[in-house]
Amino acid sequence: MKVTVDQEMCCGAGSCVLAAPEVFDQRDEDGIVVLLDAEPAAGCREAVREAAAICPASAITVRED
Question: Which positions are tagged coiled coil (predicted)?
Answer without folding.
Answer: none
